[in-house]
Design a protein that fits this description.
Elements (H helix, E strand, L loop, with lengths): L6 H6 L3 E13 L10 E5 L2 E7 H7 L6 E7 L10 H11 L5 E4 L4 E6 L3 H19 L3
Antiparallel strand pairs: 1-3, 1-4, 2-3, 4-6, 5-6
Helix pairs in contact: 3-4
């Protein structure tokens, strides 16, 4: 399955939901054996990992951003144009920072944990506007 690429359909059907937990970014040399990480990015500065906060706390890892994890349930194509821009703009308009991770099937948004409800509300408004404009509602 290739996923949806029509921006209006993506926005109208993104169905954002919260993944339970609080997540943080840490930088490591390598992931210790047996430690579950949610995402990794190899950077020149080290290995950036996204982990549950309790894992980072137990390991004594340094972090400075606590995030809620929002999953956009729509199956977006990796070559879809505009979804990340539309979502990040909608959140920026609300004064909410957003770190985006694209998975093969879904997009994942990490937003400040204290702004979770605001982020969901902003995303739902964006989706509702797209639903109205496409007549999908």
């Amino acid at each position: 399955m290739s996923g949806e690429s029509d921006l209006s359909v993506l926005l109208a059907s993104m169905a954002p939901r919260i993944r339970p937990g609080v997540f943080v970014f840490a930088t490591l040399e390598r992931v210790p054996e047996g430690v579950g990480v949610e995402a990794t990015v190899r950077e020149p500065d080290g290995l950036s990992v996204v982990v549950a906060r309790d894992i980072a706390d137990a390991a004594g890892w340094d972090y400075d951003f606590e995030a809620a994890w929002i999953i956009l349930e729509v199956h977006s194509a990796l070559d879809a144009v505009g979804l990340t821009a539309a979502v990040s703009t909608a959140l920026a308009d609300e004064g909410i920072s957003c770190n985006v991770i694209a998975g093969r099937f879904h997009d994942h948004l990490l937003v400040p944990v204290g702004r979770t409800d605001d982020a969901l509300a902003g995303l739902r408004r964006l989706s509702a506007r797209a639903t109205t404009s496409t007549g999908r509602g």
